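# nightly structure sweep
# worker-07 picked up a monomer target from the shared queue
# config: single-sequence mode, recycle default, output format = structure tokens
# input follows
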Amino acid sequence: MAKLYSKKKLAAQKMKPKKETISFLLNYSKALSIHKVGTSSFEIIAN
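# output follows
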């Protein structure tokens, strides 16, 4: 069993996000606004 965990992978797969994922994250970041009131901060998502 110990040998299974000690073996290194030959090559790591390069993972690329889908276009839909990138679009979702960009739209989410555009809609997110953070307002600070005193010592508190509020996160508001404008849909």
